[in-house]
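Tutorial handout. Part one gives the primary structure; part two gives the three-dimensional structure as tokens.
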Amino acid sequence: MKKDVPHILLVNPWIHDFAAYDFWARPLGLLYLAAFLRREGLAVGYVDCLDRFHPRAPAADPGARYGRGPYRKTPIAKPPGLRHIPRTYSRYGIDPAWLAEDLARQPAPDLVLVTSMMTYWYPGVRETIAHLKAHFADVPVVLGGIYATLCRDHARRHSGADAVFAGQGEGLLPQILSEYIGCGKMRATDPADLDAYPFPALDLQRRIAFAPLLTTRGCPFSCAYCASGVLEPVMRRRGTASVMAEIRYWHDRCGVRDFVFYDDALLVDAPHHAIPLFEAIAGSGLRLRFHTPNAVHVREISRDVARLMHRIGFRTLRLGVETADFGPDRRLDGKLGREDFRRAVAHLQDAGFASGQVGAYLLAGLPGQRWQEVARSIEAVRASGITPVIAHYTPIPHTALWPEACRCSRYDLAADPVFTNNAISPCRPGGFSWRELSRLKRLAHA
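Part two.
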């Protein structure tokens, strides 16, 4: 008998990798889709294979801060082609038996929506979908997200999903619902008007350890290593009132104190976006903490911006430096120069930020990059008085650096996204090296 209200199940899949840690990671796109579905009056279920707060999981790590923490992990077989890597490969997330129990508690869905993140995590997506298909044999499973967008053809061949959709989920949702459950027209939402979007359905999580915030979408820069322009082709911004309403909503209803900016361009055009927002937070009287695991643009850090960020409670600040080579041959991006970096660090230190609160992302493992280049960048950042944070390079399809990465890698990157895993140093001439990784870590933590 057909249900009066269609039931949609949304699933965040497992991660298969050599290393993974919950640095404020939540499937925000999926939770936005849940909010849109609810607004249409549809029934929504949610299963998170990465749930650190699952009732059958051990107690969360007491040493974790601000909502971060380690995922549960189970060693599994390495994928073909990676068996020579001298590292342990694991499934990160809940036990498969727990997933089976969680699925058994769900009402029979009419449609399952699965998201995806890093392209080389697709083995975890595939395993998750296999479990879903085994449990709900006749229910269509639709895959979206980053892997589905950047590697659509591969996802169609290898994910096991009934359909793969590339692009921004909220724009695709009407088509998906119409095609798979015969749902009528959804309420019209102007994709350019982010203030008209419902707040993401964070309440579907067992515990809201922090609230992710997305105040802008897209980025005006076109860095050679970044796929932001592919995933979000148009730069869009929310208004201050909308963001403040969301902050108050999660703080007042759920007691959230930690807010994590997911923006790729939070500080761009700061006088018309970040500064009014930070001033509104300062005037609210709320005692909150803010974090930016996505790097902020160094050039945009003025004295006023630095003081406002310190005043309203920024605790974790990451700068997008990528390399301390500020010479005329800098080829990765055009976001900053030596003086921009020096000035921003001085403003942050004058505002009261401690060295441990401010980190500079430095890319390692780029095509043609030598170990000594990374070492020089680490030393330059340390000399400035802030913390170097090594970000190992992941080759990403459709980026400007992708063709060069494919040429220099010892792996066939285009054939299988699993070879783009930054944990195997895919573009290092000699492949993965514990010795080199350890040297960089020692330098960064000295």
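Part three, for discussion. The first helix runs from residue 28 to 39. The chain has two domains: 7-181, 210-445.
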